[in-house]
Amino acid sequence: MNRNPLKTPSLQDDERFALMKFRRSVSDILKPEHDDHFLLRWLRARQWNPDNAEKMLRESMKWREKWNLDDLESWEAPAVFKDFIPHGSTGFDKDGSVVIFIPFSGIDIWGLLHSASKHDIIKNTIRVLERYMKLAYEQSKIHGPDARKFLVIFDMDNFSMKQYAYRPAAELVITAFQMYSNNYPEILKCCLIINAPKIFSFGFNIIKKFLDEYTLSKISIFKHNKHKWLPAILERVDASSLPVYFGGQQADKDGNPKCLEKICWGGKIPKQFYISEEDSYNNTSTYKTTVVKKGSKLKLHFEIEDSGVFLKWEFKTEIHDIKFGIRSVNQQTGEKVNEVALRRVPAHESEESGFITCHANHKYTVVFDNSYSYFKNKKLTYSVVVTRPLDEVEKSASKIEEKIFDQNENDISCEIKAE
């Protein structure tokens, strides 16, 4: 039965008063599609405190502007994202909500971080999420506001914690969860984590620190027992909307039960996508530490003669953020291009890393800008190098795995809450 998506939600008197106050306070930033149901997401996320909800929403609006979300579809993402970011949907649940499948073990986090910058990985995550948000909004026009929420199924089959021992990988996951928590409140209808191995609870105990109790109450974890998790799925989703692989009826035209036409399963990223972490084209791969004084800038110059090389950076600061950007000049035509837009980077919270592909006969200038700060010097530790792609960059990852995981995963004692 279709429900009226514009119907006013049923609220207690104090909740309705909080909604009225909240709407008045943020009226200057609202768009036509921001109805009561949209505003209630932020109020519920802040326990019906209009002032706290306003702060959260305004900060999120600034965040959306910073990431230029209105033009995300025009962004040309790194090619590696197309076939190696596992996710997809084969339909909707019984209430019209989008069902999202994430074959989590298909994420090659090490490969991703060596094939794209952390900034681009987060940006792509935002774009995927925004696409699902738009689909859910269209569903809500037919099935009502509850259809704006997602039912998410994480398949943890063959999951291993080993690659998350790589510090940038763990930081990336935490950054993604913080981004989600701060900017997409109350969009989760239900999360079913299936085929969870024993080691999964170790990682989940870390992640759940970034989730509130209400969100955690929507998460159900199932061990590797199809007889338990399949009924939980079928209770919410018709078999006709599920892949055969997950106990449903959908398959590709060629009979593939995994529905590869609708779900990307990811996998190990081919090494031709990698850039080097170990070999230096100009032999300047060591980290350096300096102080960028208040009101000043640090500029690093690189003259590139050959094509097919990368300008790669890693840096962090102490206590405060810093602006970072890269510009290039064509030494034949004099044309100037902002390769990486100058922006404030919270490098004191987590290490920033990334790379760009260089053009021949160009001069590149890397800028660490502290000119906006009148009172604070910034201690900066950085490595900026020009590198060539290598066939092998996994040696250091293997060393990390051997050092940290020197015992079989089955020997790690931990409990997992199972349905």
Write out key terms for the chains shown.
Jelly Rolls; 419 residues; 11 helices; 6-stranded mixed beta sheet; Phosphatidylinositol Transfer Protein Sec14p; alpha+beta; Helicase, Ruva Protein, domain 3; globular; CRAL-TRIO_dom_sf; SEC14/CRAL-TRIO_domain; single chain
Summarize it.
The chain is α+β, with helices and mostly antiparallel strands and 419 residues long.
Count of DSSP-assigned helices: 11
Topology, number of strands: 14
Largest sheet: 6 strands, mixed
Please, how many domains?
A: 3
Q: How would you sum up the global shape?
A: globular
Q: CATH superfamily of the largest domain, please?
A: CRAL-TRIO lipid binding domain
Unreliable segments of 5+ consecutive residues: 1-6, 276-285, 390-419
Estimated radius of gyration: 24 Å
Order of neighbouring strands in the sheet with most strands: 5-4-3-2-1-6
Strand residue percentage: 15-25%
SSE series: HHHHEEHHEHEHHEHEEEEEEEEEH
Percent in helix: 25-40%
Q: Roughly how many Å apart are the termini?
A: 30 Å
Structural class by secondary-structure content:
alpha+beta
Which architecture of the largest domain would the CATH scheme give at its second level? 3-Layer(aba) Sandwich
CATH class wording of the largest domain? Alpha Beta
CATH topology of the largest domain: Phosphatidylinositol Transfer Protein Sec14p
Domain CRAL-TRIO: 77-254
Protein name: SEC14-like protein 2
InterPro entries: CRAL-TRIO_dom, CRAL-TRIO_dom_sf, CRAL/TRIO_N_dom, CRAL/TRIO_N_dom_sf, GOLD_dom, GOLD_dom_sf, SEC14/CRAL-TRIO_domain
Domain GOLD: 277-386
